[in-house]
Automatic annotation (TrEMBL):
<dbReference type="InterPro" id="IPR024067">
    <property type="entry name" value="Me-malonyl-CoA_mutase_sm_su_N"/>
</dbReference>
<dbReference type="InterPro" id="IPR058549">
    <property type="entry name" value="MeMalonylCoA_mutase_a/b_site"/>
</dbReference>
<comment type="subunit">
    <text>Heterodimer of an alpha and a beta chain.</text>
</comment>
<dbReference type="Pfam" id="PF01642">
    <property type="entry name" value="MM_CoA_mutase"/>
</dbReference>
<keyword id="KW-0846">Cobalamin</keyword>
<feature type="domain" description="Methylmalonyl-CoA mutase alpha/beta chain catalytic">
    <location>
        <begin position="121"/>
        <end position="454"/>
    </location>
</feature>
<keyword id="KW-0413">Isomerase</keyword>
<dbReference type="GO" id="GO:0005737">
    <property type="term" value="C:cytoplasm"/>
</dbReference>
<dbReference type="InterPro" id="IPR016176">
    <property type="entry name" value="Cbl-dep_enz_cat"/>
</dbReference>
<comment type="similarity">
    <text>Belongs to the methylmalonyl-CoA mutase family.</text>
</comment>
<dbReference type="GO" id="GO:0004494">
    <property type="term" value="F:methylmalonyl-CoA mutase activity"/>
</dbReference>
<feature type="region of interest" description="Disordered">
    <location>
        <begin position="75"/>
        <end position="95"/>
    </location>
</feature>
<protein>
    <recommendedName>
        <fullName>methylmalonyl-CoA mutase</fullName>
        <ecNumber>5.4.99.2</ecNumber>
    </recommendedName>
</protein>
<dbReference type="InterPro" id="IPR006099">
    <property type="entry name" value="MeMalonylCoA_mutase_a/b_cat"/>
</dbReference>
<keyword id="KW-0170">Cobalt</keyword>
<dbReference type="GO" id="GO:0031419">
    <property type="term" value="F:cobalamin binding"/>
</dbReference>
<dbReference type="GO" id="GO:0019678">
    <property type="term" value="P:propionate metabolic process, methylmalonyl pathway"/>
</dbReference>
Length: 602
């Protein structure tokens, strides 16, 4: 907290105090100039941004936008952090994921900044029999190991515990997580797993290994199925509560059961939403622990993973920027461990450069930007506090709905959860298709001449349950059609840009059109005549004034030259000879799909 000097100097003393009503009047004036009539709260609403879960980001937050008391770091409700010291002692745990049985990669990561290992074991990962070889040379008393073994968790856990004993690691020095997550595995595969195999692991950890957890509450399956932040929170709460019930019925106290859980969340490039989600998750879990009679055990241990949904396959270098923002948000949000997925994650097995950039992302933020030296740096921001509060309410409401329908297992098996997630993704897909949510390098500023980045195939991930979606999937399908056409014919499908008037008159719209059609793998042609362009369709690009004078005649000339379809870049109007219109906010995916269909690009 900043303490102002008591020297009698008030820098704003000569200026009148501004009120919220005065600001609203100024907003009304600006809107009026743009042709919108709105007053009072409606004027403010006009500048708000709609989010998922029924939330909205307002243009201005003030002291009146207060939220519930967030307490202090390390104390209930743990909004500001699960530990009093936060990550100030050495930064967050830098956790790298490994899916291949490669000891050299494991040692290379640990020697260059990684502080814990996240191993995919069994189906789609490292064979259980290879665990010893993969961990050869690893100081298991220094580097925590987290397993992700799915249905092979019992065998993988048994092998890891054998290794600890064989290498003489004292039980109180063991750190990590055995990674049992029956409901998460069911969400991934659609196959129900008996919790009875997990109970002995939790009992053994609670009795013999004080620093080792047995279960992970993984919210990534719900995020990767297209869920919102609120749905991710609600599903994780329902899963955590289901595990608490099982563990307490097996004889553990609520405190002991809570100590067996670690929660995993996605960190996205929406930095404020990620910060608020992690803070809200701690508040919600604190409430669960309080209701269960153990308020002091509600400090949620969090593992944040940069979102696979946001990773693009085209122009994957942009993923470095997305991952950096997501990692910053995870650190500011108070995650205990952070995994940065390599920028080529969506393409296959990452190469050495991608792994190095991934681990160095955390290193730079911790060591050079000193991001971890301040506990809960976003705390006190009216915007962040309000968003945290609203997101907590949205997550709690979704959690209550799951509980009313019988709990997490019931909504997974009935299909209710899948339908909820699909509805959310369908609404988001509309924004992606209309480029209201732009994807740099994919739907915005695509580069058709880029050399494809190729990687060795990654092991097949578990499937059969909830779908795995990606933001770029609709555009990726369009680009794949264009690539196939290029391979078959030696050229990409083309479209002719018929510019009218001076560069000042047409540049804005011709740039917009080139950007739009390249997102679908269609090459814009701006030089020469239509006859020489090799295109079968054309787009008129100019100002509204010149359209009035020349749009009809130019469209007729293009049709006479062989154009089968003529677009006009601008809002829909009535121009003879113009077949359709492209404009900001149009359904780009629908336009591009129909265009490729007409061009015969299969």
């Amino acid at each position: 907290m900043t303490v102002l000097p008591n020297d009698g100097l008030a820098l704003a003393a000569e200026f009148p105090s501004a009120t919220h009503d005065q600001w609203q009047l100024l907003v009304e004036g600006v809107l009026r100039k743009s042709g919108k009539e709105a007053s009072g709260a409606a004027a403010e609403d006009a500048l708000s941004t709609t989010l998922e879960d029924g939330l909205a980001t307002r243009p201005l937050y003030t002291a009146r936008d207060t939220a519930a008391d967030t307490g202090f770091p390390g104390f209930a409700p743990f909004v500001r952090g699960s530990r009093p010291e936060g990550n100030t002692t050495g930064g967050w745990d830098v956790r790298q994921r490994h899916t291949a049985a490669d000891n050299a990669l494991v040692l290379g990561d640990l020697e260059n900044g990684v502080t814990s290992l996240w191993l995919a074991v069994g189906e789609g990962g490292v064979p259980v029999s290879s665990l010893e070889a993969v961990l050869d040379g690893v100081y298991l008393d220094l580097a925590p190991v987290v397993l992700d073994a799915g249905r092979d968790v019992e065998a993988a856990a048994r092998e890891l515990l054998r290794l600890y004993a064989a290498r003489g690691v004292a039980p109180d020095a063991v750190r990590g997580n055995l990674g049992a997550d029956p409901l998460g595995h069911e969400a991934r595969t659609g196959i129900a797993t008996d919790f009875a195999t997990v109970v002995p692991l939790a009992l053994r950890c609670a009795g013999e290994y004080p620093g080792l957890r047995a279960l992970t509450v993984d919210a990534l399956p719900y995020h990767e199925a297209g869920g919102s932040a609120g749905q991710e929170l609600g599903a994780s709460l329902a899963t955590g509560v289901a595990y608490l019930r099982e563990l307490t019925e097996a004889g553990l106290s609520v405190e002991q059961a809570c100590a067996q859980l670690e929660f995993r969340y996605a960190a996205t490039a929406d930095q404020f939403l990620t910060i608020a989600k992690l803070r809200a998750a701690r508040r919600l879990w604190a409430r669960v622990a309080e209701v269960c009679g153990a308020p002091g055990a509600g400090g949620q241990v969090q593992h944040a993973v940069t979102s696979p949904v946001m990773m693009s396959r085209r122009d994957p270098w942009v993923n470095m920027l997305r991952a950096t923002i997501a990692t910053l948000a995870a650190g500011v949000g108070g995650a205990d461990s952070v995994t940065v997925l390599p920028f080529d994650h969506a393409l296959g097995l990452p190469d050495a450069f991608a792994r190095r950039i991934a681990r160095n992302t955390s290193t730079i933020l911790i060591e050079e930007s000193h991001l971890s030296r301040v506990i809960d740096p976003a705390g006190g921001s009216w915007y962040v506090e309000r968003l945290t509060d609203e997101l907590a309410h949205a997550g709690w409401e979704f959690f209550q709905g799951i509980e009313r329908d019988g709990g997490q297992a019931a909504v997974l098996r009935s299909g209710r959860l899948a339908r909820d997630l699909a509805d959310t993704w369908a609404a988001r897909s509309v924004k992606l298709a209309k480029r209201r949510e732009p994807i740099t390098g994919v739907s915005e500023f695509p580069y058709l001449a880029e050399r494809p980045v190729e990687r060795e195939p990654a092991p097949e991930a578990p499937s059969g349950g909830l779908p795995r979606v990606r933001r770029d999937e609709a555009y990726e399908a369009l680009r794949a059609r264009s690539d196939a056409h290029l391979a078959a014919t030696g050229a990409r499908p083309r479209i002719y840009l018929a510019t009218i008037g001076s560069a000042a008159a047409h540049t804005a719209r011709s740039t917009f059109v080139a950007n739009l059609f390249q997102a679908g793998g269609i090459e814009p042609v701006t030089e020469g005549s239509f006859e020489d362009s090799g295109a079968t369709e054309a787009v008129l690009c100019s100002s509204d004034a010149l359209y009035e004078e020349q749009a009809v005649s130019t469209a007729e000339a293009l049709a006479a030259a062989g154009a089968r379809h003529v677009f006009l870049a601008g809002r829909p109007a009535q121009y003879a000879g113009v077949d359709s219109y492209v404009f900001a906010g149009c359904d780009a995916v629908a336009v591009l799909t129909a265009t490729l269909d007409r061009m015969g690009v299969s």
